[in-house]
Structures are given as C-alpha cells and as structure tokens.
Amino acid sequence: MLPLIAVAARLAQFSAALILFGAPLFFIYGLPAKGAAAAASLRWPRPLFLGAAIVLLLGAWAALCAQTGIMTDAVGDALKPDVVASVVTGTQFGLITALRGGLAILAGLTLWLVRPGRGLWIALAGSGGVILASFAWSGHGAADEGPGGLLHLVADMIHLWAAGVWIGALAVLALLLAAARRQPDPVALRALHRGLEGFSGVGTAVVAALIATGLVNSWFLIGPSHLLALFSALYGLLLIAKLIVFAGMLALAAANRFQLTPRLASALESGGSAEAIGALQRSVAIECLAALAVIALVSMLGTIAPLSAVS
Ligand code: HEM
Asked: Which of 298, 300, 301, 304 to mutate to test the pocket of ligand 1 (most atoms within 8 A of CB)?
C-alpha cells in the first residue's frame, strides 16, 4: 500500500509543480500583457494556482509519510510526527520534500498577497522553477557522484523545466480553448491564436531539450551495458511506454502546429471558427491525457531501482 501512496504523492507533486511553473510562464510569453485577453483579466488563474499549491503541499506530506513507513518497514510509523520528523532531518529526500511543502505555502501566500499581473506570474514561475528543480535532488537525478553526478543533476533539472514549459502551456491552452468554445469572443480568439503560435515557437526548443536531457538521464540510469534489459525489466518497460506516449504527444503537437492552428487562423478571417476550435480542443485534450500518462509513468519510474543500479 505505501509504495502506491508514494507513487500517487509523486504524481500529485509533479502535476502541481509543472503547472505552477509552466502556466504563469506561458502568461508572460504567450498572452498579451494588458487588455481583455491578458491573463490578469481571466478569473480562473488564481483558483488554479491555489489548487496546485494545495495539491503540492498535500502531495509532499503524503510522500514524507509514505517514505517514513517504507524506511521503517512499519505502516504505523507513517503518521507518527516524531518518526516523520527524523526522516525530514535525517535524509536528503525528507529535507527536500519538506522544503517543497514550505515553497507550496509560500506560493499560496504570494497568490493571496500579490494582485494578478506580470509581477505575480514572475514570482510564481520563479518559485515553481525552484520547486521543479527540487525533484532532481530527491529522486534518481542525485544518484551519481563527482563530475558525472553534476551533469546528471543539471540535466535532470533542465528536463523538469522543459517538461514544465510544455505541460504548463498545454494546461492553459486547454482552459482557453474550453472558454473559447463556450463564448467565441473575437478578442479572446485572437489571443488564443497568438498563444498557440507563441507556444509553437518555444515548442521546438522544449522538445530538443527533453530529448537531449532524457538521453543524459538514460545514460546514467540505464547505461550502454544494460540496454538489452530494457525489454525485460519493469524499469525498462515503463521507460519504453513513456517514450511511446511521448511520440504520440509529438505527433499531436505537430498536427496542432502545422494543421489545426493555421486552420483556426483562416477560420478567424472567414468568421466561422467553431469547427476549428472544436478540432483544436479535442487534440489538446488528448495531448493533456497523454501528458498525464507520462507523468504517471515517471512517478512510478522514480520509485523503482534504475537498471544501472542492478548488477
Ligand atoms: C513529454 C515529454 C517528457 C516529459 C513530460 C518528461 C518528464 C519527466 C519527469 C517529470 C521526470 C522525473 C524527473 C525526476 O524525478 O527527477 C523524468 C525523468 C526521466 N525522463 Fe523524461 N520526460 C519527457 C521526455 C523524455 C524523453 C524523450 C526521454 C528519453 C529520451 C526521457 C527520459 C527520462 C528518464 C530516463 C528519466 C529518469 C527516470 C527516473 O527517475 O528514474 N524523458 N521525465
């Protein structure tokens, strides 16, 4: 039971952190800074970020409890404050996870104290970036020593940030498309199209960064001498499943960029955008589900011994 809670706690923390970093960042580069289509004029960002901060805090707490029970091999210890505290003070995982919980509270306070606008988005993206990077220290990213260890750690942080840019933007586009479907306001539609184009430009760099840092991760966590075990060990099969889903996300992203977004542009010219919005909404919704599957797979991967650790 505890290993399952550990995986669920990673999934909750990853999902919340990817949104806390990538969504405010998208508001800065993908939407107008001022006016009716600016993120500051929308009603849903604050509840979305507050929800993400609460999910992150609960996920961090559940991760600490599950890890305590797993380490002491006693389920009962999972909820004993003194035993959990010893995991916080006595392990790197515990300390980093507790700090992440603290950053979730800080993000919640920032949301409460700062008015929606560029300043808030920068503050949230900043704390979201630190929260995302912290996973490198509490997972397999910190598994190696020496100069190789530093390369692995930095690559894993870039991997997490690139994942955040993609998935944060995807969450915002899904919400903007749902609003455009309900109320096809011309100003909002133009901003949506601009946002889609804005992400296309960033998208190529994100995919390149994910593949490059994913290969670095794979080098350290699998390694050339364990390549054949990819097809027989659980860790290898989960990673292969992740790459298959990633390929599906790439295909959807390419269709959005080269077919559906240009189709929306011409529909906006001709005034009949409902069908184009519907097609984009379906594609982005499927891409969101695929992204959730990728996060679920890495939530499991991080709790299993990597192939490089298995002799
Ligand atoms: C949509 C694309 C992708 C997303 C959202 C994504 C996301 C993530 C996340 C959140 C982690 C966890 C990092 C940690 O716990 O420190 C991770 C780990 C990893 N990723 Fe990716 N990734 C993507 C694509 C790739 C690609 C293309 C590769 C390979 C070329 C790759 C290989 C890996 C490996 C080997 C790990 C380490 C797993 C572990 O903790 O043991 N990823 N990824």
From this structure: 298
